[in-house]
Specification:
Mean pLDDT: 93
Number of helices: 5
Helix content: over 70%
Low-confidence stretches: none
Structural class: mainly alpha
Bound molecules: fe (ii) ion
Number of strands: 0
């Protein structure tokens, strides 16, 4: 899943925004769903069962983030959000070798994700939407910790 339909903004674009409108949230929804596909594909590359499970847990929570973003969209547009089905997408493309560098950049991305969600929460006028952002942000921080655990497992292997 490299490109999802209806996606207007990249994560870089979103990071620069202070308030997310419905278009921005739709791009965020797609990014979270891609996050799920990414972690599931990544987990499949690890023989260590503990490392694979840590990555799968992150993947499952990314899907939960997408569901929360769907709720935020519904609140903002005042009408139900139709979940987008990405199940027909091919497996997330990964490089031949999964090295520490790649995991370190994933870790950075998770920390940036936490910072981004906390920023959007602090600027968001709707308290329920802000709460959903904070929940997602806190879990992105946790994802970073799990990726760090995977790095530790690799270092000790
Ligand atoms: Fe996420
Ligand atoms: Fe995450």
């Amino acid at each position: 899943m490299t490109e999802a339909s209806g996606v207007k903004y990249t994560l870089e674009d979103l990071a620069k925004m202070s308030i997310l409108d419905v278009d921005a949230l739709q791009s965020m929804y797609a990014a979270e769903m891609m996050g799920q596909a990414f972690y599931m594909a990544l987990a499949n590359r690890f023989d260590d069962p503990q490392a694979a499970e840590l990555l799968r847990r992150n993947g499952r929570e990314e899907a939960g983030h997408a569901r929360r973003i769907g709720r935020a969209i519904a609140i903002k547009q005042g009408a139900e959000f139709e979940p987008v089905d990405y199940s027909d997408q091919p497996d997330f493309p990964l490089p031949e070798v999964i090295g520490r560098e790649m995991l370190e950049s994933v870790l950075k991305g998770e920390i940036a994700g936490d910072v981004g969600y906390q920023k959007w929460a602090s600027r968001e006028p709707n308290p329920e939407v802000a709460r959903l952002y904070r929940l997602n942000g806190r879990e992105e921080g946790l994802h970073g910790q799990r990726v760090q655990q995977v790095l530790d497992i690799l270092a000790n292997a």
